[in-house]
Amino acid sequence: MTTRTEEPALTVDELAARAGVTVRTIRFYSTRGLLPPPVIGPRRVGHYGREHLSRLALIEELQHQGMTLAAIERYLEQLPPDLSAHDLAIHRALVASWSPDSAEDASRAELERRAGRALAEDDIDRLAAMGVLVRADGPDTYRLDPGLLRLGVELLDVPIAYETILAARTVLLEHTREAAHELTRLFRDEVWTPYRKREPDPEQVAAMKSLSAHMQPMVVQALVTAFQRSLKEELRAAFQAE
């Protein structure tokens, strides 16, 4: 997991504006335990940071997937308590990958507004390499994947070459597609096919619908957790060997 690189600096009003929610929503989430408390600064003013922004974005994506507030609470409770903004952004990007394609057109000004920073041409190239956006036909217009934008912007500050990003993306796409294929086959052969061969009662129908609604976020969480553990072990082994 990554560590914090900056102190929380947003007031609750600034956090609400950046996240696109109301202050009332933030306070409600805080009372339900969905958001960690702010850091109390001078004059007893609470300050929020990138972790709060990323957690709000993850909550929004889980709601978009159709999860109830109670289900979101259970989902967040299972996450490690010390996840960084970057870790939370990865969770959100993977959860968003279950959604239908939702690319949006954006001008350069709109792209920079949503990114929260000015973007150089090299930044645009790196975001394109990550699959966050593609250049559209018009000047300074883009087809943007909003679910990946925040994670892509986080990665802009990581010193990785453009070619390395492309190679890493190829590796991830190949292996995640293989995992998706095997998981789909397992669900089809072991769950869906036996279910269709018998006469389900109303309770079984309700259980199957519930499983379908909640399976995707659970699988995403399992994949992220397994990948993080495997990556940590591989990195530790690689650097110990050197």
Describe this structure in words.
The chain has 242 residues and is mostly helical. It folds into three domains: 12-96, Multidrug-efflux Transporter Regulator, Chain: A, Domain 2 (Orthogonal Bundle); 104-155; 166-241, no CATH class. The chain is 64% helix and 6% strand. The protein is built from ten helices and five strands. The strands form two sheets. It has a three-stranded antiparallel beta sheet with strand order 3-5-4. It has a two-stranded antiparallel ribbon with strand order 1-2. Helix 3 runs parallel beside helix 5 and helix 5 packs antiparallel against helix 8. The longest helix is centred in the last third of the chain and has 40 residues, at 202-241. Residues 1-5 have low confidence and may be disordered.
